[in-house]
Design goal:
Blueprint: E1 5-12, H1 18-31, E2 37-44, E3 49-53, E4 56-61, E5 66-69, E6 72-74, E7 78-81, H2 92-100, H3 109-116, H4 118-127, E8 135-139, H5 146-153, E9 157-161, E10 171-173, H6 179-187, E11 192-197, E12 202-211, E13 214-217, E14 221-225, H7 232-236, E15 240-243, H8 250-266, E16 272-280, E17 283-290, H9 300-307, H10 312-323
Parallel strand pairs: 1-2, 1-7
Antiparallel strand pairs: 2-3, 3-4, 4-5, 5-6, 8-11, 9-10, 9-11, 12-13, 12-14, 12-16, 14-15, 16-17
């Protein structure tokens, strides 16, 4: 019988999504099958990387991602990435792990970097004919001609950080005099900002995970926020209804599932994803994709996993096995 694999579940990170990442990591720890894996929580913070083993915290040696315990080095067979934002979702941590030859649960570092940048992602999918909202990209310090933006895009607008998640820093702009304040809110999260036309319609979220060598599209969730869009309060403070599976006609369901699979394909992705769409007049507009989506018990992707008749334990296990080298698979 093969020994249990030692898996580091990394969480925390350097962004505003730190606490959400901790909750996602704890869910992964709770559900990875204990009979197959020895799981170790690894907390990544700007000031320190620490692994908790037998109730005690040990510093992680960043030279090889190992831990010293009583003079003996412990290494990891696999890393399950539960870090939202930097450095887990933007490609930095996956690049480090790939340099060390440590398999992990995410897509390759280059695909993580691409999808974390909303402007790059929109440009990529648009090139393949996938509908996206008209948008303008600005950097902090750039001159902003409000009248020209409104003339080209129209009102209302959505203003969002280009490289941030969990709906931090997002505002809806209904009148042109609201744009400067919305930009400042976004700049608090990132010095790059995307200004998009607000697409009115039904909002859907769709998880896609590559399992057993091919993408699996999970049941669709419709998001009905109490406010005007799916902001932080709607995502994490219960200010929305999330209906899984979404109540859709067969043609609409097929169209959304095909679009989600196509986005995953054209971006050449691996690993775990969840993307958002607005369905307006039969057209599914792609909004953005999350490559380390929330994994708390109440998060959207776990809802979809359960709606598919699967357990978190089985899917997390499949994610690990799909990304291990052949000689380590159990």
């Amino acid at each position: 019988m093969k020994k249990r694999l030692r898996i580091a579940v990394v969480m925390g990170g350097y962004s505003s999504e730190y606490e959400i990442s901790i909750r996602s990591g704890q869910t992964v720890l709770a559900h990875l099958p204990a009979e197959k894996y020895e799981t170790v929580p690894v907390l990544i913070r700007p000031e320190a990387w620490t692994a908790r083993i037998d109730g005690k915290d040990y510093p992680v040696d960043r030279n090889d991602f190992s831990v010293q315990i009583d003079g003996k080095k412990r290494t990891f067979d696999f890393v399950f990435n539960a870090i939202h934002g930097h450095p887990g979702e933007d490609g930095a941590l996956p690049a480090y792990l790939e340099m060390l030859g440590i398999p992990h649960s995410s897509a390759g570092f280059d695909k993580m970097a691409l999808t974390f940048n909303k402007m790059y992602t929109l440009s990529a999918v648009k090139a393949y004919g996938i509908p996206v909202a008209p948008s303008v990209f600005v950097r902090k310090g750039d001159p902003v001609d409000t009248n020209e933006i409104i003339r080209n895009i129209g009102l209302p607008l959505i203003v969002k950080p280009n490289r941030a998640g969990s709906s931090y820093g997002i505002s809806k702009v209904r009148h042109k005099d609201e744009l400067p304040a919305a930009l400042e809110t976004a700049y608090a999260e990132d010095d790059e900002v995307l200004i998009e036309r607000f697409i009115e319609g039904r909002e859907f979220s769709i998880g896609v995970i590559k399992l057993n060598g091919k993408p699996e599209v999970f049941p669709i969730t419709e998001i009905i926020p109490e406010g005007e869009f799916f902001d932080y309060e709607a995502k994490y403070l219960g200010k929305s209804r999330e209906i899984t599976p979404a109540q859709l006609g067969e043609d609409e369901k097929k169209l959304l599932r095909q679009t989600a699979a196509r986005v995953y394909e054209v971006l050449d992705l691996d690993g775990v994803s969840r993307a958002e769409y607005i369905l307006q007049n039969g057209v599914p507009y792609f909004l953005e994709i999350n490559m380390v989506p929330g994994l708390t018990e109440a998060s959207i992707l776990p809802q979809q996993i359960r709606a598919a008749g699967k357990t978190l334990a089985s899917v997390f296990d499949e994610i690990v096995q799909a990304n291990l080298p052949e000689n380590l698979r159990l």
